[in-house]
Amino acid sequence: MTSQTALFDSARIARYRARAQSRAEKYAFLRKRTFEDILLRLQSVTRSFDQGMLVSPFTLDPDIVPEYLSQKHTLPASSPSSMDLIISLLHLHVENDLPGILHAVRQTLRPDGLFLGALFGERTLHELRHSLLSAESEHSGAQARIIPFADIQALGGLMQRAGFALPVIDVDRVTVHYTSLMALMHDLRGMGEGNPLAGSVRPLHRDILYRAEEIYRENHGDKDGRIPASFEIVHTCGWAPHKSQQQPLKPGSAQISLTDVLGLKPEK
Q1: What is the pLDDT of residue 261?
Q2: How far apart are alpha carbons 169 and 211 in whole angstroms?
Q3: CA 225 to CA 192: how far, in whole Å?
Q4: Distance between CA atoms of 213 and 247, rounded to whole angstroms?
Q5: To which CATH superfamily is domain 10-125+146-177+230-245 assigned?
């Protein structure tokens, strides 16, 4: 049995994040927005939480983090049924073993514990992806530089296979406008979101960057001379199973027939 080749370079990701730590607060606008959305979701939950964990590559301001949440940069080794709540904030999109991570989260939750995760989805940076691929294709050949972000349908399937009950997935789409391609790339570096793909990375020459910006502006630029960058933030929610939760009906247990509901006459 052969091991699967890793898609992401974990050491490279660690270097990017370490480099961004000192200025993390300056580039935290997406993390803050996403965490505020998560807190709004928590407000609709009727139960309380005694012990929870917030997993994020960067530490958030303690003033905005509830006291029952301990902040971690990575998911610690699984301690079965030890947490009421686990929140994952914008890091799962560069995990090589996402099914394994979700399974570990599920095992760490106590029965009726809640998982709330947020990660970048497939439409994230689609403008930048197209522009770089097109520019490089005109020169020496294109190299993948923007990762394949999470597919929403596939993520729903992974949540179910990991054993989560009542899984829900929804999307928040954010568009940020920049004065130039270099300003966008500067922000991505500040967020610790450099190219994490495994293997050698060919440097981007200045002429390719110039051409990529031309393509970007031609296809996506606005009338004010700025370029938009799309970020698709996928929110996932799932519960550790518990007997108190709503259960699906068994086949054939319905008390009202679909024929009656629709007002149809049965065939003779």
Answers
A1: 45
A2: 37
A3: 27
A4: 52
A5: Vaccinia Virus protein VP39 (3.40.50.150)
Burial (Cβ within 10 Å: 0-12, 13-18, ≥19) of residue 118: buried
Res. 140 pLDDT band, cuts 50 70 90: confident
- CA distances for 209 relative to 8, 15, 69, 191, 196, angstroms: 24, 23, 42, 20, 19
Would you tell me how many other CB atoms lie within 10 Å of the CB of residue 151? Answer: 13
Q: Where do the DSSP E strands lie in 16-108? A: 52-55, 69-72, 83-89
* Torsion sign, CA atoms 28, 78, 1, 157: negative
Q: In three state form, how does the secondary structure of 97-164 look? A: CHHHHHHHHHHHEEEEEEEEEEEEECCCCHHHHHHHHHHHHCCCCCCCCCCCCECHHHHHHHHHHCCC
Domain residues of the chain, as ranges? 10-125+146-177+230-245
Beta bridge partner(s), residue 209: none
**6: which 2 tokens?**
């890793």
Q: How far is 176 from 30, CA to CA, in rounded Å?
A: 10
- What amino acid occupies position 35? F
Assess contact for 56 and 31: CB atoms under 8 A.
Answer: yes
What is the average pLDDT score of the chain? 89
Reduced to 3 states (helix: H, G, I; strand: E, B; else coil), residue 238 is strand
